[in-house]
Amino acid sequence: MSLALSSTRCPTFQSASQTRTARRRVAVAAQASSDPLLQKPVARPAEQPSSSEPAAAAAAPAAAHAPAAAAAPSAAASGVTIEYQRQQAKAMRQYFQNLKLTETVEKSKVFGWTRKNEISNGRWVMMGLLVGLMTEYATGVSFIDQLKLMGSYMGLLDLD
């Protein structure tokens, strides 16, 4: 008899990747249960014909549509009706319209703290520092002294 180790693992021990995968599934399931757009539709009870209609009138259309009903599952059995689909389509359309509007408003901002303005402002500052450092290298006058000189030439500072 050979005492070779089996390649199967005990089901109570899981690898780290299996544990992470299981945790992700639980997290996604928790998110889906809290978000109403990600929940499965709930089947509504089928409407019963009113008692004032005769039973024969209700049976005649049912007999005429019996082959079609047998071929495809009914809307009540699947839980998704045309009206439910229409409501969900309207909600999705409204959601994406709001998303598009928000994106358009963010892109159309010209003044203020926008990403585009901050990037261009940062580039101009880097260019100014580069010019100041290159001038300091060429003339031997420090960057601060250059600012003082510029202010006195423009009449903004009186350094005498």
From TrEMBL:
Q: Which InterPro entries match?
A: PSII_Assembly/Photoprotect-Rel
Which GO cellular component term is one of those annotated?
chloroplast thylakoid membrane
**Compositionally skewed regions (Polar residues) per UniProt:** 1-14
The UniProt regions of compositional bias labelled Low complexity, in chain numbering, are 43-63
Which SUPFAM superfamilies does this chain map to?
A: Chlorophyll a-b binding protein (SSF103511)
Q: Does the keyword Cytoplasm apply?
A: no
Q: Where is this region: Disordered?
A: 1-63
Keyword annotations:
Membrane, Transmembrane, Transmembrane helix
Q: Where are the transmembrane segments?
A: 124-144
Q: What is the recorded name of this protein?
A: Uncharacterized protein
The lineage is: Eukaryota, Viridiplantae, Chlorophyta, core chlorophytes, Trebouxiophyceae
